[in-house]
Amino acid sequence: MNGPVPVEVLKQHLIDPEICIRCNTCEETCPVDAITHDENNYVVRADTCNGCMACISPCPTGAIDSWREVIKAEAYSLEDQFGWDELPSQNDSLAGLAGAVAGIGEAGKSGTESVSDAPALGGSDMVRGSVVPPWSAAKPYVNLYNHKAPIQATVVGNYRLTDTSAESDIHHIVLDFGKLPFPVLEGQSIGILPPGTTQDGRAHHARQYSIASPRDGERPGYNNLALTVKRVTHDHQGREAGGVCSNYLCDLQKGDVVNVMGPFGGTFLMPNHPDSHLLMICTGTGAAPMRAMTEYRRRRRLKGATGKLMLFFGARTQGELPYFGPLLNLPKDFIDTNLAFSRTPGQAKRYVQDAMRERAADVAALLRHDDTFVYVCGLKGMEDGVLQSLQVIAADAGLDWSALWQRLKTEGRLHLETY
Ligand code: NAP
Fold first, then answer.
1. Which residues line ligand 1 (CB under 6 A)?
2. How does this protein assemble (predicted)?
3. Ligand 1: which atom is nearest the Cα of residue 228?
4. How many angstroms separate the CA atoms of 208 and 195, rounded?
5. Are 267 and 189 in contact (CB under 8 A)?
6. Strand 372-378 to strand 335-341: parallel, antiparallel, or no bridges (unpaired)?
7. Tens of pLDDT along 172-207?
8. Same domain, yes or no, for 237 and 316?
9. Is the pTM of this model over 0.90?
10. Which range of residues forms the domain containing residue 99?
């Protein structure tokens, strides 16, 4: 006689729509295309997700690390997930059952084990950068405020950074948190909740911006931070389109109050040991975290930090390079700055990776050093080019790049943040 047919219970991977800031990192990271999105939500295909966990650590907010145990035949569909404003609650009668019945455990995790306790290690082949912070990084606070309970910050400064003749309108915006706690570290980001609603009446999602100032404040000893924001006037296809949040931010006046979420990010952090070297490569507004780290080291240098700083910074023209003046004022023995301009009239296009190759011997010397930490931030397209340059530079210097790359990842020494 046949026994009862076991009910298959699935630990279904979901994304928390309340925390998700729709930054697309998970969709780009997923090696099996299990993640997709619509206007409303980022969602996971239950029949495609293989639980590889590649998406977990890169997510800046932790929204990706959401799981519900469901009867497999009743797994939440994409349509269900697109319609959510919040995650459904866990059916208590199923909790802990995934994996307890043969043939289940789709997420590649055994039964009742908490999947969030098992992050992918820095050495995963599917992840190109570190998913662990430097060993000496300070411990970050994350997700102190969400979209239901944001913190209010007051605008205390809003300055245009780029020439008025430049096409890019990039702003340096300073937000002050008064007496409310908002502890941050260089390399972390925050979410800004723009006011108003989308065409279908939903509140706008938060947009993520890197913090451009050091942990002890844009002004040392003050509870404030800076952002570097480029006014978006065109979409990726070049059609006119005003960015909701960037225009809101760039138009803010002193005294305006802004709703903020975060802080986010627990890996793109700087080492705290004073003899560590920073190799920083960025384009455009991707300079924000590099400014934060550089300024922190500049302040700390006065207290004895000795590590080297090398910066490769790309922009269309000199006039479009945020922080151009202050950058050039930094002492040469403090930071080795290399600029690459791609659209200077009468000159050949030059990208950061070209500048890196020109300085190959010095980059290689840094790569040889066990205390060098590499940071890449800016346009998505630069990531391949920069990694290829590092590979060529390492190979020409007789270094085994694939072994070094693996080690950099595992040791929290290669951090990529590109959009
Ligand atoms: P941008 O002005 O469009 O470009 C900056 C420079 O990068 C230009 O010289 C550009 O050259 C060059 N570039 C284009 N493709 C490249 C490639 N494949 N390799 C190397 N260089 C390349 O930059 P942006 O508009 O400021 O964008 C910066 C990016 O940083 C955005 O994607 C933004 O989301 C991201 N980001 C911003 C923040 C923030 O807090 N605001 C933080 C992290 C990251 P061309 O002349 O060819 O265009």
1. 168, 209-210, 228-230, 283-286, 288, 314-316, 342-343, 351-352, 377-379, 381-382, 385, 417, 419
2. Homodimer.
3. 41
4. 15
5. no
6. unpaired
7. 999 999 999 999 999 999 999 999 998 888 889 899
8. no
9. no
10. 9-117
